[in-house]
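Researcher: Here's a chain I'd like modeled. Treat it as a single chain, no partners, no ligands.
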Amino acid sequence: MTRTLILPGLHNSDPDHWQSRWEAEDETLQRVIQDDWETPHCAEWVARLEQALERTGTETLLVAHSAGCALVAHWAVGCQRGQVRGALLVAPSDPEAANFPSGPTGFAPMPLVRFPFPTVVVASSNDPFVTVVRARTFAKAWGSKFVMIGEAGHINSASGFGDWPKGLALLNTLRKTPNKSETTQATVLM
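Model: Modeled as a single isolated chain. Structure tokens:
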């Protein structure tokens, strides 16, 4: 059975967020609980993700939102091949942007590495935390499929996404994608 780890961004995902709704409906989804949601240190978030992956095995999928996408990028720099089956990366916030909150540390610069597993980046044309150009840059560097969903804000509960069935369809597509991670590895792009 494929397990899926939910990786919220800053402040965690509230009960109306699509990540929380998916988790409530599917017992194979499990949130990675961080010690500090407000002023996190990236290295601590990476360590917590590593701990969660030790418990879930190699068929694990990641579902990240906002700063959770930066977490995945930092983790991917040192990940071992075969640790993750794939990742859905939604509304990746830009830790190098002027409006990125000042509390979190270690998230910038955003790693631009080709991930050793299939990924989909979902972006909005009016996300206040990442420009379309930067979201495309991340997707290209990470080797991700890029999905633009139009004016959708930060793709969260404040944007009115509720259960977000189209996002769940993207996750289900990743679940069906063959795991080719044994033959690829993270590559730093210069």
